[in-house]
Amino acid sequence: MGRSADLVNERRELRELLLERSVRRGDFILASGARSSYYIDGRRTTMSGAGQRLIGRLGLAAIDERGWNPAAVGGLTLGADPVAYAIAHAAALEGRTLDGFTVRKEPKAHGTGRRIEGGFEPGMAVVVVEDVVTTGESALRAIRAVEEEGGRVLGVLAVVDREEGGRARLEAEGYALEALFTASELLA
Known about the structure:
The chain has helices at 3-21, 43-46, 49-66, 81-93, 137-148, 166-172, 183-187, and strands at 23-29, 35-40, 72-76, 99-103, 116-118, 125-133, 152-161, 177-182. It starts with a helix and ends with a helix. α1 crosses α3 (49-66) and α3 (49-66) packs across α4. By secondary structure, it is α/β, with parallel strands linked by helices. It has one domain (3-187): Rossmann fold. It contains seven helices and eight strands; from the N terminus they run αββααβαβββαβαβα. It has a six-stranded mixed β-sheet. The chain has a two-stranded antiparallel ribbon with strand order 1-2.
């Protein structure tokens, strides 16, 4: 079986895992304040061993497909952390160098006082990652932090795009969004 067939199978596996572990039906208030008949708790998948394996491989393939060549991947803690580390690990398994980083919500008040931890250095080209994009606010906060520290953002990669304005908002700011799934695809 070739790499593209493997990726098709892995995408199917990830969809099943997301539906099983992360998608909940009911009445929810999202972080944006909007009401929704479903909630996607991406961490229930991104923090699982199976989710890490699938997201790492599929995320790295999506970055490659876009033609992005980042030195690091990361985003706003906590949703982005397991996504970034899964992709960095998948790259290492292929003999490639790709670091992960975490953007703190606030700079540390002690030690180095850094806002961005891990494998990030000024001047780096990076891809900002997310588990779920709704309005794009978390991705934009991470982008601003990276750019304030001298990084160059190539684009944003999300596991799921809820299709609730995040893509349009990111694109209006000049950043492409690549999603492994849209909510429509996931819930179809």
